[in-house]
Specification:
The complex is a heterodimer of chains A (393) and B (142). By secondary structure, chain A is α+β, with helices and mostly antiparallel strands. Helix content of chain A is 50%, strand content 14%. In chain B, a hairpin with a 4-residue loop joins strand 4 (62-71) and strand 5. The chains are: A alpha+beta (393), B alpha/beta (142).
């Protein structure tokens, strides 16, 4: 017998407005319908009423986690439109900000994934070491979030030498801790039991759904805007793309964890190679035409399109966030797994609904399912795996 | 080199109305709207491109759709431009074979009123349920 379990429109676990209709037969998930639009704020329309100087501030407020990836794609779109070259120091500063953001965003995700599995220690530790990055942001930019660093033609603020030493200190701390966490997480048989072979998104399906970012790279697709269409200083320093073939939750987790290490390396290289000099170029009038800016946000490719008629206000502004491509892929990734796994699978793409766009109660076997109960279902599975494991030993 | 070959191949296969290389990694190609599914099949299936997104704009010529296909191995974006005239707002849907186009076509349908023929589920995606279906937020002069 088929039962529909509604999760949302205010997601009880991810605290964001989206609506999942899980179609289940017994414990197995057989279908999924996704509804969004509960948080549509009309950013594209608003951007068409603002000047090129104001738009980066507007698009910065699309996402509260990766608040730098939209502005960086935005300024690149305008720079592509007007053929503006930015100074080399600005390129390095953009890279440092973008990579710091990637580490804190991935830490946030790993922490939440730990919490959903019933590993609250993972959650506490990761969020504890996310804090130094936010403090670093406050030191460099004046804000813990919404940094307001991007500007058409360069960056708004310079990074001072004494701040660079502080960045280096935090990187040393994070490197040793991330290393320890990766070993601890990947060695744990219960975590492996929860993640391995669950929520598989095959390479073919990833291509069909146009998946981007760690979701695509966990399914064996080696795509990364930083490598394919290099911006900022990504083509000036050596670094590697992290790709895993399996497509399950473990692969996606590994991609994100190892990317943190890679980001630390990138930041160190930037600090070493950063030349002194200008941080902005003077921007004359914006000519008529069109431009596309892309950036690799922690969740994948951010795409911005801008069209100008020669005035100081764009005639069309288009934004496409990575979760817009990744969330639909859940339709295939969640099929065939249990409800307790679905909690993790739906979270595995690191969805960002404020990017893509209310709590209703969920019904399970005729009962209402609250956030606590969904968590309980997931935690019970982990406990069961723990018991089985201890029996083996 | 590969890009030159691709240009020749596209020009040989399709009637290109305009070819605009804006910058080394950005190409804008205008074709007839009836050819969009053939073009999408060619770019996605034969050339392995990824549909990044579609931009819909209300212009004087009609509703303009820009299908942004990304050739990831070279970092190039091929934006396929088609014009959908306002008196006949119809175009073939890509969502029939490409799930990546599903949401964006629903979005353009509700914001600009373009009908995607053959789309499996053309329900509103972003606007509220009580929104009048005859009013399109991104249309000019409305």
């Amino acid at each position: 017998m088929k039962t529909i379990i509604p999760v949302g429109p205010y997601h009880p676990l991810q605290d964001e407005p989206e609506f999942f209709k899980l179609e289940v037969e017994g414990e197995k998930v057989t279908g999924l319908e996704i509804n969004i639009g509960y948080n549509h704020r009309g950013h594209e329309y608003l951007a068409q009423k603002m000047t090129y100087e104001q738009i980066p501030f507007l698009v910065e407020r699309i996402c509260g986690i990766c608040s730098n990836s939209h502005p960086i794609a935005c300024v690149q779109a305008v720079e592509d439109l007007a053929h503006i070259e930015i100074p080399e120091r600005a390129k390095y500063i953009r890279t440092i900000i973008a990579e710091l953001e990637r580490i804190h965003s991935h830490f946030l995700w790993v922490g939440l994934a730990g919490h959903f599995m019933g590993y609250n220690t993972v959650w506490m530790w990761f969020w504890r070491y996310r804090e130094p990055i936010l403090q670093l942001f406050e030191l460099i930019t004046g804000n813990r979030n919404h940094y307001a660093m991007m500007k058409v033609g360069g960056v708004r603020r310079d990074i001072e030498d004494k701040d660079m030493q502080e960045i280096d200190k935090v990187m040393n701390l994070l490197e040793s801790k991330t290393d320890m966490f990766i070993k601890a997480i990947l060695d744990d048989p219960v975590i492996a039991g929860r993640l391995e072979g669950v929520g598989v998104l095959t390479k073919e399906e990833a291509i069909r759904y146009g998946a981007v970012g760690p979701t695509a790279r966990g399914s064996g697709l080696a795509i990364d805007v930083r490598k394919d269409d290099p911006y900022a200083a990504y083509d000036l320093i050596p670094w590697n793309i992290i790709v895993f073939e399996e497509g399950d939750l473990l692969a996606k987790a590994k991609v994100r964890l190892l990317e943190c290490i890679e980001s630390i390396k990138i930041i160190r290289e930037c600090l070493k190679r950063m030349p002194h000099g200008e941080i902005q170029t003077r921007v004359e009038d914006i000519p008529p035409g069109e431009g596309i800016g892309r950036a690799e946000a922690p969740r994948g490719e951010v795409f911005h399109y801008v069209r100008s008629d020669g005035s100081n206000i764009p005639v069309r502004y288009k934004v496409r966030a990575p979760s817009y491509m990744n969330v639909p892929s859940n339709e295939v990734a969640v099929k065939g797994y249990t409800i307790s796994d679905a909690v993790l699978v739906l979270a595995s793409v690191d969805p960002c609904y404020c990017c893509t766009e209310r709590m209703a109660t969920a019904y399970y076997k005729g009962k209402k399912l609250s956030g606590k109960e969904l968590l309980k279902l997931s935690w019970e599975k982990t406990e069961e795996l723990k018991r089985k494991n201890s029996l083996k030993v | 080199m590969i890009m030159d070959e691709l240009e020749k191949e596209i020009r040989g296969k399709f009637e290109v109305l305009s070819w605009l290389p804006h910058s080394p990694r950005r190409v804008y190609i205008e074709i007839d709207r009836k050819k969009i599914t053939d073009m999408a099949h060619f770019l996605y299936e034969e050339k392995g491109m990824r549909l990044s997104t579609v931009t819909g704009t209300d212009t004087r010529r009609g509703v303009e759709l820009l299908y942004h296909f990304s050739l990831d191995s070279f970092g190039v974006i091929y934006s396929i431009r088609v014009i959908v005239p306002k008196d006949e707002l119809k175009i073939d849907s890509l969502a029939t074979f490409l799930p990546a186009a599903n949401w964006i076509e629903r979005e353009i349908h509700e914001l600009l009123g373009v009908n995607f023929e053959g789309h499996p589920n053309l329900k509103p995606l972003l606007t509220a349920e009580e929104w009048q279906s005859s009013r399109y937020p991104l249309r000019r002069g409305e």
